[in-house]
Each structure stands twice: as C-alpha cells, then as structure tokens.
GST N-terminal domain-containing protein (Exophiala spinifera), 290 residues
Amino acid sequence: MSTDRAPKFTIYSSEASQWAMVPLLGIQEKGIQPHEYEHREIDLIGAGNFDAEYLKINHNGTLPALTTPSLDTPLEESADILEFLDRLEPSRGTSLAPKDAATKERAAELITLVHSMDLNSNLILLTARDTEELEKVKATFYDFITTRQRVLEENAARDPSHPFYGPKAADNNGVYKVYTTSSTSPEHHDFFKSTHEGYKAFANAFGQLESLLALPYAAGDHLTYADLNIIPWLSHVLCFAGAKDFNDFAALESLVRKTVPGFSVGPELRQWWKTIQERESFKKIYPVLH
Ligand SMILES: N[C@@H](CCC(=O)N[C@@H](CS)C(=O)NCC(=O)O)C(=O)O
C-alpha cells in the first residue's frame, strides 16, 4: 500500500458513546471518507474500554480516542479530536473553526458548559431520586454497571499496582452498591438526595445554555466546534429522558420538573435543534436519537 493510501488516523469509538459522536459528526462535516481512516469499535457496554491495551491509548478509559503517526501521543478528548480533524483538512468540507474572536469565545464557553458535571447526561441515564426511578434506570443499565464493576475488580486483582483499576473500581462501587442492594440503605438515601441536587444544577446549567446560544448556529452565523459538541449531549439526554421523536422535549421537561417545577426548554435551543436536524451530518449519525 502506498503512503498516500495509508489511513490518516485511527478513531476509537462506540455506538453507545455520546462523546464519540463528536468526531463522527466532524468526519461527516469534513467529508472524510471511510477508506481514509481506520475505525475501531470498543465495547463500552461490555467494559471493553477497561482493557489494558485500550488504556494505553486513552488513560482515562473513555471514548473516543484518536491516534495518528503525526502525533506523539493519542488524543483522549472528543473536543480535541474534533479540532484535530478540522486542522487536518482545513479547506475541505465545512470549516469548523470560529471565524472571529466573539464566536471563538462563545464556542469555548458552550463547549465547557456542555462538558461540565452539571450537564452530565449520566444524571438521566444512571441516577434516581426514588425507588421507582431506580427500578427504571436499573432495567436499562443494571448489566452495564455490574459488568463494569466485575471487570474493574478482576483487573485490579490481576494487576494491583495498575494506576487505573483500583481507583476506578472504588469510584464505580458507589453506584454499583445502590444498584445491587436493598433500597432502604443510607447509601440509597444519599444517592436519591444527591440526584435531586444534580437536577437542580442541571436545570440551572440548561438555563445558561439557553442564554449562551446564538442563532442560527450555537456560537454565531456558521457551524463551529460548539454545535458538534452540543448535538451528541442533547440527543443522549432527550433519548434517555424518553423523547418519542426528535422534537419531543416534554419527557425531559417532566423529568426535570419533578425537582424544579418551573423548568422548561427555551425557544433558542428548540430553534437551534431544528436547524441542526437539516444537516446531512446529523441525518447520517442520528437516524434516531441515541
Ligand atoms: N471528556 C471526555 C469524556 C469522554 C467520556 O466520558 N466518554 C464516555 C462515553 S460517552 C466513556 O467512555 N465513559 C466510560 C467510563 O467513564 O468508564 C471527552 O469529551 O472525550
């Protein structure tokens, strides 16, 4: 194979990963073709992201990651991978870099906000405020949480000095215990209480997002990195809140209103989301919400 036919980079992703969709949207916007890169699917649901080999690529054990001969170390953050793809092919497809200082500043703020703990979609996927909600999230994620714990503990036992496994097993153990023990324990009480606090912070950050959005695109008049970071987050949140179609915000609103009665999804976000649904990249990566 001649050098110009060699794959330009390898992207590690998972169908189940929200953040892996950031670079996958970027690949579509840039018009990068499948033969130009290698795509490796990691089994996030089966804890494949905790394989020792994958941890050598992404030390956080998260998806996505990108490797390429031109970089000494892999890229471990979705936002960095997206910028790398844009710089790799600056004049091809959509130019995603903000074109002026104000757009750049707004894009950076939006990206920080949507990646913040306050908007972490795991609040909706994995946590609960009462036993009824706990049964609901367990119905979908029990296997995910218990498989992670088993794999982390097995790996920690096999390799006790590994810097990742012990702390990660301890970290996952909190939610693991709540999923696997009777729901009358003090741990459950604390979990339900902190989930309530999480929803308050989520509603507040959602309001910040609404006021930061510029239209028609997130940071201004053209598509930027910001849009492609917000899309996967919103899709994941809507999907796991139980939305019946792309523009169904009612399920999310009713979930958040249980803690914050006045919560509603504002007009800016709704309008932005409509604009985004017209893009070919979106249609390709999101035939359905996920
Ligand atoms: N800040 C990271 C977050 C990546 C992340 O948390 N990815 C999730 C999937 S969407 C993951 O791999 N989680 C596995 C874990 O935390 O064990 C990024 O934007 O790339």
The chain has two domains: 9-94, 114-285.
